[in-house]
Specification:
The protein has 16 helices and 13 strands. It is α+β, with helices and mostly antiparallel strands.
């Protein structure tokens, strides 16, 4: 019997008993829908978690702090200042309370690390004509590290070493410039349309305006800012002229877009000059001793190396953390959900497999005469085995195809509905670029599902096929 005859006969036998074939296939359909939807839901959750985490931070960055600091920055996260508060803390004298340049060199030599940069942070005031932003978080890092950090430029260009007092502005900061003499300074209404809730385009463009900055929190303020309370009137310090070189992309990430960025050496020099002019009033009049850094960023491009790099840094006596740690926990939750619902789908497929076996066994009893005739006219027992295996595999394949088609329809429907309650339940939120897809169904999942259901059908039909092979031709004909 050639293959074409075998396929034609197998399909004829299946469609001769349409209702029974459909009911047998129905179990495969339900199991396929359960597994495919749960896997695609898990993939959707994972992808959206990655998008959300990338909006909050960088999944390829390891943040390093002195041991026991927990990442809490004093004085805005600049150089480590050996002040009276730290010198009196005897309990921490044995710990590494600072990150030295030699430590940074060691970090660079760890396998999987591609770039390292010390980070200093200060809070400044920025002005442009009548507009002011009185709380700007500015980060200083090396120019080489800025691109690794993912500072995607939306307008202008990236900083270079030739840009004197150049600065990159986070996109969200454009909405935070306000006129202190105006009564209408609602940040939310300036950023979002009150009727539609959609984000407005910013009206302030720092690339087209002159900018000044100052480390003096009283710069441009009508009311005096007192850091320690009861601070006596201080002589104002001349502001620093700066130039906005670029503005980050709207989708660079919320955490990144809430800050400004400068080259670390230029920023350190400006702060040193300010402290000298003010007589080190931020440090009780005493010149601070700069001894290392409070924060260092380590770029690890391959996520599989993140955990190992963190462990190596911790062995050196530092605290290391990464946003990927939280993503790993979320992925664990997602995998648990997939396993639970996948198990339910697996049970459905197991029941369906039993149904296929039962159907094929019943087919043998109903077709004893047919099997006997096939043997008498010269059909080999291998052909009979192939026929029953083909029929059982076809039931599995048809169930898989129908289950996948229904799953695709359900996923498209739910993705288009964008049910807020369901999104919140699954901890999936909009990332700004597009509405998040709840279900993601890649081609490999579709192919795998069809192959898996066909395999289930094949395995389920194996024992009935062997039974048909061993059936005596003469006894089958005599029984009929």
């Amino acid at each position: 019997m050639n293959k074409i005859d075998l396929i034609r006969m197998g399909l004829k036998n299946l469609f001769r008993r349409k209702l029974r074939t459909f009911l047998t296939t129905l179990g495969i359909i339900i199991g396929t829908i359960s597994i495919v939807l749960m896997v695609s839901l898990g993939l959707g959750m994972q992808k959206n978690m990655e998008k959300q985490m990338s909006q909050w931070g960088s999944l390829d960055i390891v943040e390093v702090y002195p041991a026991g600091s927990g990442g809490n920055d004093r004085y805005g996260g600049g150089m480590v200042i050996m002040d009276t508060y730290q010198s009196n803390n005897k309990s921490s004298s044995k710990k590494k309370e600072k990150i030295q340049n030699s430590d940074i060199t060691t970090f660079k030599q760890i396998e999987g690390v591609e770039a390292v940069s010390p980070i200093i942070e200060h809070t400044i005031v920025m002005k442009s004509k009548k507009l002011i932003n009185d709380y700007v978080r500015v980060k200083g890092m090396t120019i080489e590290f800025m691109e690794k950090y993912g500072l995607d430029i939306g307008q202008g260009r990236m900083l270079t070493a030739e840009d004197k007092n150049g600065i990159l502005i986070g996109y969200n900061m454009l909405y935070e410039f306000y006129n202190p003499n105006s009564r209408d300074n609602d940040w939310w209404s300036s950023m979002y349309d009150p009727e539609t809730g959609e984000r407005k385009p910013p009206t302030f463009n720092p690339l087209e305006n002159k900018l000044t900055m100052s480390f003096d929190r009283n710069y441009g303020r009508s009311e005096r800012y007192s850091r320690y309370g009861g601070e006596e009137e201080q002589k104002p310090v001349r502001p620093i002229n700066i130039k906005a070189i670029g503005v980050l992309s709207e989708f660079a990430g919320w955490r990144k877009n809430d800050s400004a960025y400068m080259e670390i050496n230029q920023m350190t020099a400006l702060k040193d000059k300010y402290d000298k002019i003010t007589g080190y009033r931020d440090y009780d009049g005493k010149k601070p001793k700069k001894d290392g850094y409070e924060k260092v960023f380590v770029y690890v491009p391959k996520r599989k190396n993140l955990e190992k790099v963190q462990q190596e840094i911790q062995k050196l006596g530092f605290t290391a953390r990464s946003d990927a740690n939280e993503l790993k926990q979320q992925e664990s939750l997602s995998n648990t959900i997939k396993m639970v619902f996948g198990a339910i789908g697996g049970i459905s497929l197991l029941v369906a497999a039993i149904g296929i076996t039962n159907t094929m066994v019943m087919a043998i009893y109903e077709r004893r005469k047919e099997i006997g005739v096939m043997k008498v006219i010269g059909s080999s027992i291998k052909d009979i085995k192939k026929l029953f295996l083909f029929e059982s595999a076809t039931i599995g394949l048809l169930g898989g195809i129908l289950g996948i088609l229904i799953s695709i329809g359900i996923s498209i429907l739910l993705n288009n509905m964008q049910n807020t309650a369901l999104l919140n339940f699954l901890h999936i939120y909009e990332t700004g670029e597009a509405n998040p897809d709840i279900f993601i169904m890649p081609s490999w999942l579709i192919v795998s599902a069809m192959a898996f259901t066909s395999l289930i059908g094949l395995i389920s039909g194996y024992l009935p096929a062997r039974k048909a092979m061993k059936l005596s031709a003469l006894e089958a004909i005599k029984t009929e």
